[in-house]
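Weekly structure sync, notes
Attendees: PL (lead), two postdocs, one rotation student
Agenda item 3: pending single-chain targets
PL asked that the sequence for the first pending target be pasted directly into the notes so everyone works from the same version. It is reproduced below exactly as submitted, 236 residues in total.
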Amino acid sequence: MVHAKILAGLQKELQNKYEISSTIRHKGERGRSRETGVAGFLRENLPDAYGVGTGELFSFNGERVSPQCDIIVYDRMKTPVFGKQEAVQQIPIEGVYVVIEVRSILDKNALQDATFKFEAIRNLWASSHPLKRGNKHNNGPSFCLFGFKRKCSERACIDFLKECDGEDCGIVALDSGCSIWVGPKNFSMPAKPVWLPTTIPESDAYSTLAFFFFNVLASCQVDLEPLNVIKILQSC
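Predicted structure, written out during the meeting:
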């Protein structure tokens, strides 16, 4: 398939950029360069309706602010972004589809840090959007932990997803594979996370970036509630 060949080529290109960035001595700038590579890939290939930013999330319904988010995919057509031209943007969580944490290496520390960050963002959403009667779930952004190289076990990755306790969370290791959630079509049982080896260089298989891209795109297909501008004005 043409799209598979295109994305396989883009994956190799992104991996090459990662290797080149390894020559940057400053750790912070090295990490920023890798975040920029993933964000640039999304900006260039996602439809124009979706914006890609970095910064903090807040809610129009509360005072809390999220931790720093590496990549934020949001509704570009309807979501105001404060400080759009600044290094750190402030984006309302009501217009966010996906939050992506980017790490050079996926290891135990990366999994722990992502767990705390994703939980903090979930709490931000829950505190400002109480469950409505009749709804079983609170809708909020999806989450993805993206790493260039995996140094933890597949088991550790699956345990991380179980601890996240939701199909709204995924994990990607560009050099080896990614997670998917598998369950019966009739939803009679909860889905379970499994690991797919989608990067196998010896077989010339480079499908990890494709899985990542289309999972992000799928997360952007949800319908966000329109902003209640009158209510927002009343809180000013």
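Discussion points:
- The helical segments are 2-21, 27-45, 108-128, 154-164, 208-219, 229-234.
- The chain has one domain: 2-226.
Action: rotation student to compare against the earlier draft before next sync.
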